[in-house]
Predict the structure.
Amino acid sequence: MNKVMSRTAQPRPRHRPPTRRDSRRPGGARARTPSRPAATRAEAARTRPGTAVRQPRPTDLFAERLLAVLSGQRPVHWMLRHTAGRAYDELVRLAERGPLRALGSRPVVHDIGYYVPSEGALEVFARIAAGDRLRAMAFRLELGKDLRWRCTAVETGTP
């Protein structure tokens, strides 16, 4: 108790203002709470107020996901919950060969197209650019009972 009293008994130096309880919020200012992630805020800054931000299509999302796995940027099990049926086995077989790996440059999705054979199904093709080479990738998406898209087939343009 003597130590506590000796600390409080010493006067503060004149060059330092008295400390507040919470030094992170000077003057008792309210804490800032981010309402949205930074990427969403940046996107909202580019759009006019009142306009909806366009959600990415499932074709675009799955093309990027499959490219990440087939180019070796992500492990195959990353797609486990996004596949159904034999698609995961096909993806494992394809990923072992690494058909979309490229030396020097990172492959990117160049173009995407799709066909709707029936309601709740999409057959998608993508052109993959790696340097000056273009490669092909095709996959099928089906809408599940839980309203989530899943990949049910995957093929690449390599033998």
Summary: Strands lie at 108-118, 121-130, 133-143, 149-156. The first strand starts at residue 108 and ends at 118.
